[in-house]
């Protein structure tokens, strides 16, 4: 099979090394934060739980898990065309997201070593997990004659600054939604092995437990800092991050619905289930969650889906860039308006049991 079929539409930095996907609002981001402020946090109110989580990290339940077996040792050229392109995109996005976590956690572990040993060791051990995940995904890309130059990504990507509480909101949701994404795919393919087009999905059950433990860590950190959960600003920010994470996933996945169809999933039903479960999980720590059962929630996301389709069509046209911008502007405004309307859907207050830490 010629290279054009094996690697449809992918530019390479050098043979076999893929040019990273263009950075957009919907691509995985790299983060940095105020390391000094993070090191000054007082975690004593919930230190016992954090130490218990640290013991789980030290146990390293998945230390022997990420080992490829003989099922990988065959050609995957039969996965071709659009399915191949979408699957490579899935692997790249996942690898980039995991590597982003590795970089952030590794730097936090280094910076907090002398100021907060418990947090520093937790971050170092989570960076170990993320490095395994990214490495496993990059090896999967190699089965499709491609790879990511992770050192190049480190230098070339822009870093988004978030203050510590925003890092906690965002990474907590990222880890928990990662758990629900992986376990949902795993359970589906366990029931329908005929849809398992590639062996990596067999690793998802144990893999997602890393995501779950990482989410539990950020849950415990936030409850050790009750001021970031208890005031009116926390309610607003929790709504913002829930909406950002859910909308980003939904818009990304609907764009790539043919990938989910290739593994026997309906992208919309899959996303709705993952959003429902993540939203429910967030209610264990956030003071509010979103009313995702309200029909308006998905109706407005679907307007954004249609807008994005039109934006893509304009971008692929031969019109001059200034004309394209003017053509795109109404759809950008519409997307922004839909997000504003979604944000102001009345949220659901979370009832906290008496005596819980918050």
Give a written overview of the molecule.
- The chain is mostly helical.
- It has helices at 3-6, 35-39, 47-59, 81-111, 117-142, 150-156, 164-191, 204-224, 227-230, 232-255, 257-262, 267-282, 295-315, 321-343; strands spanning 12-14, 17-18, 30-32, 159-161, 288-289, 348-349.
- It has a two-stranded antiparallel sheet with strand order 1-2. The protein has a two-stranded parallel sheet with strand order 3-4. Strands 5-6 form a two-stranded antiparallel ribbon.
- A hairpin with a 2-residue loop joins strand 1 and strand 2 (17-18).
Outline:
The chain has 358 residues and is mainly α. The protein has helices at 3-6, 35-39, 47-59, 81-111, 117-142, 150-156, 164-191, 204-224, 227-230, 232-255, 257-262, 267-282, 295-315, 321-343, and strands at residues 12-14, 17-18, 30-32, 159-161, 288-289, 348-349.
């Amino acid at each position: 099979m010629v290279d054009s079929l094996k690697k449809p539409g992918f530019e390479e930095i050098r043979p076999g090394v893929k040019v990273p996907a263009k950075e957009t609002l919907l691509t995985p981001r790299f983060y940095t934060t105020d390391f000094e402020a993070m090191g000054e946090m007082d975690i004593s109110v919930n230190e016992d739980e954090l130490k218990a989580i640290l013991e789980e990290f030290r146990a390293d339940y998945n230390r022997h898990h990420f080992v490829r077996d003989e099922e990988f040792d065959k050609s995957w050229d039969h996965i071709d065309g659009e399915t191949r392109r979408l699957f490579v995109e899935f692997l790249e996005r996942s690898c980039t997201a995991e590597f982003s976590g590795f970089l952030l956690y590794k730097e936090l572990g280094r910076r907090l070593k002398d100021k907060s040993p418990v947090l520093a060791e937790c971050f170092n051990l989570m960076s170990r997990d993320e490095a395994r995940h990214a490495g496993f995904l990059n090896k999967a890309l190699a089965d499709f004659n491609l790879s990511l130059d992770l050192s190049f990504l480190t230098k070339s990507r822009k870093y988004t600054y978030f203050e510590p509480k925003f890092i906690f909101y965002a990474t907590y949701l990222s880890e928990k939604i990662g758990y629900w994404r992986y376990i949902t795919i795993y359970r589906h393919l366990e029931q329908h092995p005929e849809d398992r087009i590639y062996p990596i999905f067999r690793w998802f059950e144990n893999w997602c437990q890393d995501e779950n433990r990482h989410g539990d860590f950020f849950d415990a950190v936030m409850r050790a800092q009750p001021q970031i959960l208890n005031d009116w600003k926390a309610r607003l920010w929790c709504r913002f991050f829930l909406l950002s994470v859910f909308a980003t996933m939904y818009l990304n996945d609907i764009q790539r619905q043919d990938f989910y169809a290739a593994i026997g999933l309906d992208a919309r039903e899959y996303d709705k289930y993952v959003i429902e479960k993540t939203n429910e999980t967030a209610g264990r720590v956030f003071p509010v969650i979103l009313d995702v059962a309200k029909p308006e929630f998905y109706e407005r996301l679907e307007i954004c889906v249609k807008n994005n389709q039109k934006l893509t069509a304009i971008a692929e046209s031969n019109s001059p860039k200034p004309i394209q911008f003017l053509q795109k502007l109404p759809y950008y405004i519409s997307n922004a308006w839909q997000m504003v309307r979604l944000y102001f859907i009345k949220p659901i207050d979370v009832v906290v049991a008496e005596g819980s830490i918050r």
